[in-house]
Amino acid sequence: GLFSTYGNLPRFHGQVETVRCFESNPMVRTVLSSPGKNRVLVVDGGGSKRVAILGDQIAKLAVDNCWAGVIVNGCIRDSAIINGLNIGVKALGTHPVKSLKTHPGERGVPVNFAGVEFVPGQWVYSDEDGIVVSNEAIHE
Questions:
Q1: Distance, C-alpha 124 to centroid of its chain
Q2: Does residue 7 have a pLDDT over 90?
Q3: Residues 71, 53: contact at Cβ < 8 Å?
Q4: Number of H helices and number of E strands within the chain?
Q5: Which of 38, 37, 72, 44 is nearest to 58 (CA)?
Q6: 138 half-sphere exposure, CB direction, 13 A CA radius
Q7: Is residue 1 scored above 90 in pLDDT?
Q8: What is the pLDDT of residue 64?
Q9: What is the largest CA-CA distance in the chain?
Q10: Residue 15 confidence class, pLDDT cut points 50, 70, 90
């Protein structure tokens, strides 16, 4: 598939929250520092493979604040550490370079990548086989 799986939870689901940013991740940190309530943060990083949008420190914030997972249309770093954390992460791959901090990014906006629109409040389900989006909860 398009996305690789990271984190200790290959299967995760929750309501969607979104961030749109390009090679600059302050809004990702801000959102994952707030209560997750078992939601999934979907980050449209523009598909950039030049920097990492998520690293171990921000991933640990996500765990500490009860986020179920993070889906990144972009890269992550510190994958060995993230693989030991109790969170699910999907990303295009890894890159060792940190993102910029120059643009805050947008929160709570519909994002579109991989042929799918992700809207805050929808439900997203991710496992080893891929990602499914639904307007309503479809889990038991």
A1: 11
A2: yes
A3: no
A4: 3, 11
A5: 72
A6: 11
A7: no
A8: 98
A9: 42
A10: very high
Nearest residue to 99 (alpha-carbon basis) of 57, 44, 60, 50: 50
End-to-end, the C-alpha distance of the chain in Å comes to 26
Q: What is the pLDDT of residue 106?
A: 98
Q: Residue type at 101?
A: K
Q: Quick one: CA dihedral 41, 16, 31, 110, positive or negative?
A: positive
Q: Is the pLDDT of residue 49 over 90?
A: yes
Contact 19, 31 (CB under 8 A): yes
**Using CA atoms, how far apart are residues 94 and 118, in angstroms rounded to an integer?**
22
Which tokens hold the place of 138? Answer: 């479809």
With b for 16 or more beta-carbon neighbours within 10 A and e for fewer, the 59-98 pattern comes to bbbbbeeebbbbbbbbbbbbbeebeebebbbbbbebbeee
pLDDT at 140 over 90: no
pLDDT beyond 90 at 11 = yes
